[in-house]
Design goal:
The chain is built from nine helices and 18 strands. It is of the alpha/beta class. The strands form three sheets. Strands 1, 2, 8, 9, 10, 11, 17 and 18 form an eight-stranded mixed sheet that branches.
């Protein structure tokens, strides 16, 4: 019979949950359980994103731990986990075609520079020197040479593999529907099947579904859901190793080492979809909009064939950055949700900090600005 009690239960088997499990086990905590609601690890956003490992373009509240991950964790992660996570640190160009685009990029660069990130604004000539395959319509860009990209699924499964080897117990098809306090502290985690798990600490990192689970103990994280889509092309001749983004946020992506391009994009209508969270159907509106945007910046891809498209749900937090926080009203609960599409690249640092919160240690960077209680009524 499976053990249903632990020191720590992690709800959500995505990259953040698997990373937290690994760092807890690495620190010597063997009594850890991860509950994943779907049949497979990494089924949600962790396997359905473009793999950006970027610091540039981030809110100043999340930039410190994004920088920590890039400086201290990503460069040696493949070696540490024993799996090649396909991490490449070749830089990130965020492209602009208009004066309004460049003004936005200058603001992002100023914020980044204020926290010590090497990010600068370059003109169209410098853009073409870095990447000659881009459109002549580009008048400038932000350039962050320490940004990069990695393989999301390989990274998630690498954390899962190492956590399992260190004794963490993973349960799939274990959909959590409720939390329950005992004597004023969070203690019970209740599954759709009726099974009950118990722990002293619970990390809730289940994407948008975290909202419904937290509500069962009176906590509501202000989030909306958003269906993000991606596409992959057939193999192309090698063009570049950098990560690309655009000031207008129409698309982002990179060329993989085997030659295919991987892009994420949107049509602007994704937040209005009425699909359920268990639906993962892509839209012809999104893929066509993404293709138009991509061709406008990389004309050489105009005739490239699309091999497949896929999509997944993002948990968009009200103010654009995640909640990573203990909850005073529910002792024993730690939230890690609302990542707003920024969660993959910071996962090593987030997983480490979640383990430190469980262990009562100071986190590697100050994340007090991401506390749950930052949300106040505006009227």
């Amino acid at each position: 019979m499976s053990k249903h009690t632990a020191e720590v239960i992690i709800i959500g088997g995505g990259v953040n949950g698997c990373a937290a499990a690994y760092y807890l086990a690495k620190a010597g905590m063997k009594d850890v359980i991860v509950l994943e609601g779907s049949p497979s690890i990494g089924h949600g956003g962790s396997s359905r994103n473009g793999g950006g490992v970027r610091q540039s373009g981030r809110d100043v509240r999340e930039l410190p731990y994004a920088m920590y991950a890039v400086q201290n964790m990503w460069p040696t992660l493949s070696e540490e986990l024993g799996v090649d996570v396909e991490y490449y640190q070749k830089g990130n160009l965020r492209l602009g075609k208009t004066d309004a685009h460049m003004e936005k990029l200058r603001d992002l660069a100023a914020n980044a520079n204020s926290l010590g990130l090497d990010m600068k604004i370059i003109d169209g000539k410098e853009v073409k020197e870095i990447c000659p395959y881009l459109s002549d319509e580009i008048i400038g860009a932000s350039w962050c040479p320490t940004d990069g990209h990695a393989n999301p699924m390989l990274t998630t499964l690498a954390y899962y593999k190492r956590a399992t080897e260190l004794g963490v117990n993973f349960f799939t098809d274990a959909k959590v529907v409720a939390l329950e306090k005992v004597k004023g502290k969070l203690r019970k985690v209740i599954l759709e099947s009726g099974e009950v798990f118990e722990a002293d600490k619970v990390i809730l990192t289940a994407g948008y579904e975290s909202r419904f689970i937290a509500r069962t103990v009176g906590i509501d994280v202000p989030m909306t859901k958003y269906f993000e889509e991606a596409l992959v092309t057939e193999v192309q001749p090698h063009m570049f190793d950098i990560m690309l983004g655009v000031a207008s946020a129409d698309f982002y992506g990179h060329q993989s080492q085997h030659g295919s391009f991987v892009f994420g994009s949107d049509s602007g209508l994704e937040e209005t979809t009425d699909m359920g969270l268990d639906e993962l159907r892509t839209s012809p509106l999104t893929v066509s909009a993404g293709c138009r945007a991509i061709m406008g910046y990389i004309p050489m891809l105009a005739d490239a064939k699309i091999v497949r498209t896929w999509g997944g749900w993002l948990d968009l937090c009200y103010d654009g950055v995640p909640v990573i926080s203990e909850v005073d009203e529910v002792p024993g609960l730690i939230l890690a949700c609302g990542f707003t599409g920024h969660g993959f690249g910071t996962a090593p640092a987030v997983g480490l900090m979640l383990s430190q919160m469980v262990l009562g240690e100071k986190t590697v960077v100050d994340i007090s600005s991401l506390r749950y209680d930052r949300f106040k009524a505006v009227r």
